[in-house]
Amino acid sequence: MAAEGSDIDPMHQFLVQPMFGQKLVLHGYDVSFTNSALFMFITAGLLWLFMLGGMQRKLVPGRWQAAVEGMTGFVMDMMQTNIGPKGKPFVPYIFTLFMFLLFANLIGLFPLGIVPGWHPFTVTSHISLTALMAFFSFGIVLAVGFWKHGLHFFSLFVPSGTPWYILIIVTPIEFVSFFVRPFSLGLRLFVAMTAGHILLDVFASFVVQGINSHTPLGAVVSALSMLMIVGVSALELLVAAIQAYVFALLTSLYLNDAINLH
Amino acid sequence: MDVTSAKMIGAGLAAIGVGMAALGVGNVFGSFLEGALRNPGAADGQQGRLFIGFAAAELLGLIAFVVAILILFVVK
Fold it and tell me: 3-state DSSP call for residue A30?
């Protein structure tokens, strides 16, 4: 991947750079306004606009309101299926999580790159963001579990009805698999986004190199790679939506473990 | 064998693991479709579990990809 020998670097798209060329350092900490921060603001702003359009409160909803109601209904339905009525207080958090990740993933695929220098930045392609959201979810799960059940929460690792000689082996395994959850949650989204964008960039580099070779074979390679980019972009749109949904779904399942204790 | 060559070979071998995850994910969706064609009424109710299964299978493939990236970019 790094042995191109030319200016094409698939990993350059993930570089976090200060915007407007201004680095801002405070007490030795770099707090400059980066492209990552810009796109997080854009995500939050678009999400806020989307929700604003849905709050018209007409009795017979128009298209925008119907879209917003469709999303909220989808998330509430998912939580009702996975947690039950006790999951109602967590709907705002799961909805925010789902919508933010969905918008962040989709904005990363937006074809703004036609304007030179304006290519969008996928904020979820950094483990710093996805791990933070995963640990936040996991922290909520732990807090809810210990608040509701106290030390009885540890009965989660001891499946009922197992004989004691199996329990000695199963309990550490259950314990470890519980604490791996935030890592797996964050890693899944991060790698899916990063791998998808690297794939797109590699095919794009084939297009550029095919054209630069000034041969007929290069033209054919460029055309075929362009078709692959179209196909992979469609797949990436699907993966963006699925990964956001899977993050929210798994968070609600972990919440179910904490609230209902099996 | 110098480190760079070993890194390339190691990354290539780790990519085989990603291919095996493709088998796993295909298995999950294939079983779901097979069951859904036998009993279409019950299919919509199980969609949640379909995506949970997909996430679990995909995660292990992504871990193999992370191993390849670690070998290529993190090992000195």
Answer: strand
Interface of B with A in 36-65 (CB under 8 A): 48, 51-52, 54-55, 58-59, 62-63, 65
pLDDT, averaged per 10 consecutive residues of chain B (76 residues), comes to 91 92 94 94 89 90 89 86
B72 — contact with chain A (CB < 8 Å)?
A: yes
Global pTM value: 0.90
Collapsing DSSP states into helix, strand and coil, what is residue A29?
Answer: strand
- Domain tally for chain B? 1
Maximum distance among all Cα pairs of chain B, rounded to whole angstroms = 59
CB-CB neighbours of B36 under 10 Å: 16
Nearest to A185 by CA among A141, A231, A120: A141
Q: In what helix (H) or strand (E) does residue B40 lie, and over which residues does it extend?
A: helix B40-43
Q: What is the ipTM of this complex?
A: 0.85
Decide: A212 and A218 in contact? Cβ < 8 Å.
Answer: yes
Q: Which of A184, A193, A243 to mutate to test the interface with B (most CBs of B within 10 A)?
A: A184
Taking the mean position of all CA atoms in its chain, how far away is CA A145? 25
